[in-house]
Specification:
about 30% helix; alpha+beta
């Protein structure tokens, strides 16, 4: 729905600030509901002044294009941190994991406590607390990101029948599209605490509906069943944060943070580190040394005005799948009658996040029974297959977790190529591949591809693209201007060498 751009603000006497800009994609700029949601995000995020929340500098609209200007953070998402630890076979330190969640609690509490000009609470709920929206910088700071689907009492109301957020990190009441309060974010952060300290996914399922069912009904294995060395103090925090009855959860992020800080102090004892921030910074700079070098090279080239041939992937080790919670500890729903008993193949979830739309028909009949726990409706919605009742879970001995090898990366990557103005011909290695804007699948590799963008009346543009990750290129074409004929008897002056592109000053 939006794209993130890297840039810098410049001013007199060498003033400079690196920024990240979030811009609505052109085809959504005319969608008034989406623009309103984007503006709501800006209003909420810009109002929160806290060290654990990404800072928004301003919201701007130029030529009908809306974009947010935010602080640029050098770091990785918690999702990337978990995947890198899994790839290195290096379990994350539980004290550091608890510290990360405690810092995220502080940022979310600041959002929940946001008030209007009269001092009344705005009842902000983030609604999308997930591994992609909590970031750890290389300096050891924790930041909460992306209030894109956050809801405040004075925001535009969510359209009926829609559930917004990442389905595997929703609260039970969010799955049922019920009114939410700050305790919904407590449940989502509890999932993150569970996964970060155990290194496995809690509610990862083969479909959104199965994930909803698991969140609402399936038993949550106590952490000690997965790892007998799991600290009881952290297990108690997980249990309270993940209570399905919101009345049994922490009433605020502040209280959850207090318990986490107390648990960290108790577990560390006399050998407690001087600073968790320093320990976290040491971990990040050690395991992400390759990513740090890539990003610093990108910044160096941007400051020099050079073309950037390679942009680091948005998420570290995005092709890596973390293991699930041992399935023996979580009995799955019974398959539909006549169906295959074998579980369907695992589908990979896109790390950038999804918006799941639950149709109005899914609010009744079988879906309401699955999520709400009531009796099934006597008739099913048209087009929905009837399913057998889910039997009561049977007690089974927990099986040891199986370590499955990480799946290979996809053989192709996607290039999204657009031109300004649109309608230019796109060629890759000399072969026509469509008209911009277009989406092209190419074989993954390290060998650069020659991308040519051509349109009558404009100067052709040639780019070199390394197809090692999904990418988007926006090519700005310059019109061809015929040179003015020289005056009779006067020699035309030699053409001047074109100056390298520079960053425009951001006002």
């Amino acid at each position: 729905m939006a794209e993130i751009l890297f840039g810098r603000m410049v001013g007199p006497h060498g003033f400079e600030r690196l920024v990240a800009m979030k811009r609505i994609l052109p085809h959504l700029a005319e969608d008034h509901n989406f623009v309103r949601m984007f503006v709501d995000e800006a209003r909420i995020a810009a109002s929160i002044r806290h060290a654990r929340v990404v800072q928004v500098h301003e919201l701007a609209c130029i030529d009908g294009e809306y974009f947010l200007v935010m602080e640029y953070l050098e770091g990785e998402s918690v999702g990337g941190l978990m995947r890198r630890a899994w790839v290195r076979r290096e379990p994350l330190d539980r004290l550091l994991s608890a510290h990360i969640i405690a810092e995220a609690c502080a940022g979310l509490h600041a959002a929940h406590e946001l008030t209007d000009a009269t001092g009344a609470s705005r009842h902000v709920v983030h609604r999308d607390v997930s591994p992609q929206n909590v970031m750890v910088t290389y300096a050891g700071e924790v930041k909460v990101l992306d209030f894109g689907v956050a809801k405040a009492a004075d925001s535009a109301r969510t359209q009926g029948g829609q559930v917004k957020g990442k389905c595997e990190y929703m609260s039970p009441e969010q799955c049922r599209s019920e009114p939410l309060d700050r305790r919904s974010d407590v449940f989502s952060l509890g999932i993150l605490l569970y996964e970060l300290t155990l290194g496995c996914r809690l509610f990862k399922r083969d479909s959104a509906l199965l994930a909803f069912y698991a969140i609402c009904h399936e038993p949550i294995p106590p952490p000690a069943e997965i790892d007998p060395t799991y600290p009881p103090a952290l297990a108690a925090i997980c249990a309270r944060a993940l209570a399905r009855d919101r009345g049994d959860r922490y009433p605020s992020m502040l209280e959850m943070r207090r318990d986490l800080v107390a648990a960290i102090r108790g577990l560390a004892g006399a050998e407690r580190r001087a600073s968790e921030d320093e320990a976290l910074a040491g971990l990040m700079t050690r395991i992400f040394a390759d990513r740090i070098d890539e990003k610093r090279e990108m910044i160096r080239r941007a400051r020099a005005g050079s073309s950037i041939e390679r942009i680091p992937a948005a998420e570290a080790d995005a092709q890596v799948e973390l293991p699930d919670v041992p399935r023996a500890a979580v009995p799955p729903p019974a398959p539909a009658p006549g169906g295959d008993d074998a579980p369907p193949p695992r589908r990979r979830w896109i790390a950038a996040g999804i918006v799941v739309t639950v149709l109005a028909a899914a609010a009744t009949g079988g879906a309401a029974w699955l999520l709400g726990g009531g009796e099934p409706a006597p008739t099913m919605p048209r087009g929905m297959a009837e399913t057998a009742p889910v039997p009561a879970p049977r007690e089974t001995a927990p099986a040891p977790p199986e370590t499955a090898p990480a799946p290979p990366p996809p053989r192709t990557v996607t290039l999204v190529i657009d031109s300004v103005p649109a309608g230019a011909e796109v060629r890759i290695d000399g072969q026509p591949r469509g008209t911009a804007p277009c989406t092209i699948a190419v074989p993954r590799g390290e060998t650069p591809l020659a991308v040519a963008v051509l349109r009558d009346g404009f100067q052709p543009v040639d780019e070199r693209v390394v197809p090692d990750a999904d990418q988007k290129l926006v090519i700005h074409l310059e019109p061809v201007r015929a040179p003015a004929p020289p005056a009779r008897g006067v020699r035309a002056p030699p053409s001047k060498k074109k100056e390298p592109a520079v960053f425009e000053r951001f006002e």
